Amino acid sequence: MRVMLKFTLPVEKGNEAFKDGSLAKTVESIMNDLKPEAAYFAPLDGKRGGMIFFNLSKPSQIVEVVEPLFLNLNAETEIVPVMAPDDLREGLSKAAATQK
To answer: Domains in the chain, ordered, with CATH?
Structure first.
């Protein structure tokens, strides 16, 4: 299932992680592990943050994905199922067919 991992870092911990190199190391490790379809990084709610889009093959993978963010960066995380345009078209078509 395609999901979006959204995360934010507390400012103080983000500053420390930037200075000691653990921010870059943790993000790079996550990117290598997930091999995301897309990833974007930006200030979110006034904090360092990002959105990473990838395929989640099984629910237990959630632990593997978020723990480095929790342990290394004190991040807040959210995982949300998402759709590509073709997925949306298929879902709308099926939903419309059941309404007839």
So the answer is: 2-98 (3.30.70.260)
- 3 C-beta neighbours (distance < 10 Å), count: 18
Strands 47-55 and 2-9, sheet pairing: antiparallel
Its pTM stands at 0.89
pLDDT tens readout for residues 51-74: 999 999 999 999 999 999 999 999
In Å, what is the CA distance from 59 to each residue of 3, 73, 96? 11, 22, 29
Q: Which residue from 37, 40, 47 is spatially nearest to 76, judged by alpha carbons?
A: 47
Check: CB of residue 36 under 8 Å from CB of residue 2. Answer: no
Instruction: Give the phi and the psi of residue 46 in degrees, each rounded to 5.
Output: 75, 10
- Burial (CB count <10 Å: 0-12, 13-18, 19+), residue 64: exposed
Element containing residue 32 per DSSP (H, E): helix 22-34
Structure tokens given for 49: 């943050």
